[in-house]
Predict the 3D structure of the following.
Amino acid sequence: MDSPKELLEKLASKNVLSRDEYLHLIKNRDTISDEAASLARTVCDAIYGKRIYIRGLIEFTNYCRNNCYYCGIRSENKNAQRYRLMPDEIISCADRGYELGFRTFVLQGGEDMYYSDDILAPLVSTIKQRHPDCALTLSVGERSRDSYKRLKEAGADRYLLRHETINNTHYGMLHPKEMSRENRMRCLDDLKGLGYQTGAGFMVSSPGQTEEDLADELLFLKNFRPQMVGIGPFIPHKDTPFADRDSGSAEMTLFLLSLIRLTLPDVLLPATTALATVDPLGREKGIASGANVLMPNLSPTGVREKYLLYDNKICMGEEAAQCIECLKTRVAKTGYEIVTDRGDHIGQKRL
Ligand code: 5AD
Ligand code: FES
């Protein structure tokens, strides 16, 4: 086996390693995380420059039919105060976001069947008509291929659906038996096949995750080639079966961001809110480790504290305008710049 340093150089030049090699890097992360970050940053700068893309996140419903063991808005959590934003409220959020310089909106919610295709498709087309220079991303969970097709035809450009774990047994530890890794993968294949810029991803150090699983995640990502990858540390939520589990660390998350950047050089990679929740400088460090996307919250402040997937989430009181100013300052300090741009995946041909 090559030394960790040699393995990193091999990854930077070949963009893939074997499972054992990824595992060796993960086990030795303490010794080479700085080098991994600097290689990842060089690769990202060569493709996307000093530009950081922002996505306006609109968390429009916290109703969810699922009961994932890690998630604060799981259906069995009777303490969650449920809310739904109506289409006109969602449109206002997007309009406000446009004024603030956002050119991508992410409509994210629990799996809330109130938002049938008959409601979502016209909403998507209205937002696209009002803002033809914007990209629209959906993040509303598992749906049928027909539904994904209709939403794509209505104008949706991208879809985020984390696969959560590639390991079937681990999937079963995180989810009730009604849910399956198989269906999640079916959804991801459908989305990619329909031409969405597709985002997969997983939580770092979710209960039961091993270092071997992380090596498998990197191989899966290499193979699936998503345009976007969302990862963040697992953080316990008090009203879930995992309330007493430990959070994932910023260090492990940052190291994986670097390995993902080196594996998929042109991937769109956010420094997530969960990362900034476990480390106040998470976003800055995320960028320094190879991330190139930030996803601040555009939801009305009145509902924000109800969309709690985990405890201690940041930016609960801040208006969108305050967050964007805060982020601009933070990013500028790192030598990067937030841009007003759709921020498409580089391999994506615009129609
Ligand atoms: N900690 C960190 N991330 C979480 N998510 C859900 N619950 C938690 C938690 N407790 C992530 C999942 C989901 C995304 C929207 O948020 O990966 O796909
Ligand atoms: Fe929200 Fe800093 S990003 S206050």
Remarks:
- The first helix runs from residue 4 to 14.
- The domain at 10-339 is CATH 3.20.20.70 (TIM Barrel).
- The chain has one domain: 10-339.
